[in-house]
Amino acid sequence: MAFSPNGQRIVSGSGDKTVKIWDASEQTE
User: How far apart are alpha carbons 15 and 5 in whole angstroms?
Assistant: First the structure.
C-alpha cells in the first residue's frame, strides 16, 4: 500500500497481482 504525495489517493496491491487506486477523500475505488 502506498499514499500519493498529496494524500488524496491510496494504491494497494494484492496477491492476485491486481492494483487498486482509491480516492481517500471520496472513499471510492
Answer: 25
**3-class SS of residue 9:** strand
Structural contact between residues 1 and 7, judged by C-beta atoms closer than 8 angstroms? no
With a cut of 70, say whether residue 1 has pLDDT above it. Answer: yes
Amino acid of residue 11? V
The percentage of residues in the chain with a pLDDT greater than 90, rounded to a whole number, is: 48
pLDDT at residue 27, as a whole number = 65
Q: Compute and round to an integer the Cα radius of gyration of the chain.
A: 9
E runs forming strands in the chain: 2-3, 9-13, 19-23
